[in-house]
Amino acid sequence: MIDLCLLKELKSGSHKAFERVFRYYYPRVMAYTAVIVDEVTAEDIVQDIFLYIWENHVNIEPNSGFNSYLYQLAYTRCMDYYRTKKRDNQYAIHSGNVYLEECEKLLQQDASVIQNLYSKDFSRRLNELLEKLPVQRRDAFIMTYVEGLKAREVAERMNIPQRTVESHVYLTLKYLKQKMSKNDFYML
Fold first, then answer.
1. Could you list the residue range(s) of the whole structural domain that residue 145 is in?
2. Which of 15, 18, 47, 186 has the maximal Cβ count within 10 Å?
């Protein structure tokens, strides 16, 4: 425990007294603070506390429970840290929501242009990928997905079994899933 004489020397501005107080209390206050906040933040808080103690050494009252005062400072600074962190998180969420709302408004205003461009780009990519497939598989897929025919109707048109049409469509979808982004594939 730190004696009153040392605290009186600290109050008068003694660097040696401050160093002794620091060496004695730093590990204790650090351990206490690290229980409340993460270790890196605790280090910053404890260093700030001791800087505050040094800058305000003339206000120290040696007879009024320096030990309690130090731990109360640590607790208060930890709570301030959490309040600031909570406020920052709320601001980030609010800013993100405002940004998304603005983007949504812009998209609604320019939706037809954007949809048109995206549809053309999507169609071009889809056609490029379909061109790489065997003719029969590509035709079965186009008749099913583009023209909207049922597998039975495609089988009749192509003079192949219905199971073969289903197999062609399945293999084409599998191929496209590998080659397209998730958004494009789900749009398909």
1. 111-187
2. 18
State pLDDT tens for residues 134-185: 999 989 988 888 888 888 998 998 999 999 989 988 898 888 888 877 666 6
pTM, entire model:
0.50
Side chain identity, residue 26: Y
**Helical segments of 37-150, H only:** 39-55, 66-109, 111-131, 135-141
DSSP, res 64: S
- What CATH number is given to the structural domain containing 65? 1.10.1740.10
Whether 121 and 74 share a structural domain:
no
Instruction: Please indicate, yes or no, whether residues 127 and 72 belong to a single structural domain of this protein.
Output: no
- Helix H or strand E encompassing 175: helix 162-179
How many domains, in total, are found in the chain?
2
Going by the DSSP 8-state scheme, the letter that residue 59 receives in this structure is G
> What value does the CA radius of gyration of the chain take, rounded to a whole number of Å?
36
* CA 145 and chain centroid, separation: 38
- Write out the two tokens for 63: 């007879």
Token readout for 92 is: 């980030």
Q: Is 50 domain-assigned?
A: yes
Q: Which two tokens stand for residue 10?
A: 């600290």
CA distance 30 to 42: 6
* End position of a domain, from candidates 68, 84, 100: 84
Does residue 94 form part of some domain? no
